[in-house]
Amino acid sequence: MSWQGLIAHFGDRMDIAKTVPPVTLHEGNTPLIPAPRLAQAIAPGCELYLKYEGLNPTGSFKDRGMTAAITQAVAEGAQAVICASTGNTSASAAAYAARAGLRCVVLIPDGKIALGKLAATIAYGAEVVAIDGSFDDGLRMVREIAERTPISLVNSVNPARLQGQKTAAWEVTEQLAGTPDWLCLPVGNAGNISAYWMGFKEQGHKPPRLLGAQAAGSAPIVNGARVDKPETLATAIRIGNPARWQQAVDALQESCGHILAVTDEEIFDAYRLVAKTEGVFCEPSSAAGLAGLRKAVAAGEVNPEGKRIVSVLTGHGLKDPDSAVREAAVPTRIPADLDALMRVMNV
Predict the structure, then answer these.
(1) Which of 5, 128, 180, 344 has an alpha carbon within 20 to 30 A of 168's alpha carbon?
(2) Is the torsion defined by CA of 30, 311, 271, 36 positive or negative?
């Protein structure tokens, strides 16, 4: 049978309503790509894989949680959904709400969202409200409105979201025919690291150790204190007060894992490197896990020798075209002449 989405494949293991047909765009089943050249550059001696979540329908891992959250909302009779977002959640919520025929309202921090994500959100028909504040302000507002009205909140505080997102752990296990020694991923609102740990624990195999990476200007879990004005060019993880903070801490402690802060320079170095060494284009925030792995190996906090390591790339590079263009070299300009081309190519 062809792939029909996460709920069709894993639904009997997901704690969500089964009374309505799944709201699906055939999300999941994303590739686990071996990355030997990248491994040699950042973690020599390991067997490195990239879980490329950018190939979900709206280009990010958020689709895993959203198929579950929107299906649950439909089962509960919701007519509208709402979320706060740094970009990927808004695009995913808008797409799945459109699929279900629901009204979708999204709050975004004004001027703090990558244009590729905003464009998709608008294209899917969501009502976009830009606030003069941070993601954390937006999350507070949508939580309050969901308490006062029948509108369904689909941020990762919604337990159905984690039910969908935990399926990525099961896919990794199926694809490896076992679990990795380390799983590396970026940490923003901390729903994904919590969901992966939930998934690995539930399947009964020996779980991996977790390595989380936060942007240095948005690292509340690393520093143990809320960040009132988070800053980073990695917009998807520009969050100063993660909704799943304690669950992430629990997951890190239970897995004997580690979390660290990486600078924007380290994130963008990893962003460029994964594309140039392996031909995999991710959004900058996605590369935070790789930057964290590189830093942890250099510091002796992770010994890569003989280990199987999976790094989760949470979103596609086209989610943030501004960063791609900003990072690109200026094209060499020549006349439309073969000799000029040969000179440039040194042939």
Answers:
(1) 128
(2) negative
Asked whether the CA dihedral 54, 257, 253, 284 is positive or negative, the reply is: negative
Instruction: Write the CB contacts of 151 (distance below 8 Å, at least 6 apart in sequence).
Output: 78, 80, 81, 82, 105, 145
Rounded to two decimals, the pTM is 0.93
Instruction: Classify domain 6-59+161-326 by CATH number.
Output: 3.40.50.1100
Alpha-carbon distances of 111 from 134, 141, 314, rounded to whole Å: 10, 18, 22
**Rounded to whole angstroms, what are the CA distances from 45 to 10, 39, 51, 218?**
34, 7, 19, 31
% pLDDT > 70, the chain: 100
| Cα torsion through 4, 10, 16, 18, rounded to 10 | 60
The CA distance from 178 to 115, in Å, is: 38
Q: Right CATH number for 62-157 from 1.10.3720.10, 3.40.50.620, 3.40.50.1100, 3.30.1240.10?
A: 3.40.50.1100
58, 60, 61, 66: CA torsion to nearest 10:
-30
- CA–CA gap between residue 307 and residue 154 (Å, rounded): 36
β 182-186/308-313 pair status: parallel
User: In the prediction, which pLDDT does 258 show?
Assistant: 97
CB atoms within 10 A of CB 151: 20
pLDDT in tens, 8-33: 999 999 999 999 999 999 999 999 99
pLDDT at residue 1 tops 70: no
Q: How far is CA 152 from CA 73, 91, 109, 160, 180, in A?
A: 6, 16, 20, 12, 36
Q: Are 262 and 3 in contact (CB under 8 A)?
A: no
Cα 175 from Cα 109, distance rounded (Å): 37
What angle separates helix 167-176 from helix 191-202, to the nearest 10 degrees?
60
DSSP 8-state class, residue 305: T
Average pLDDT over residues 208-235: 95
Q: How far apart are the C-alpha atoms of 130 and 109, rounded to whole Å?
A: 6
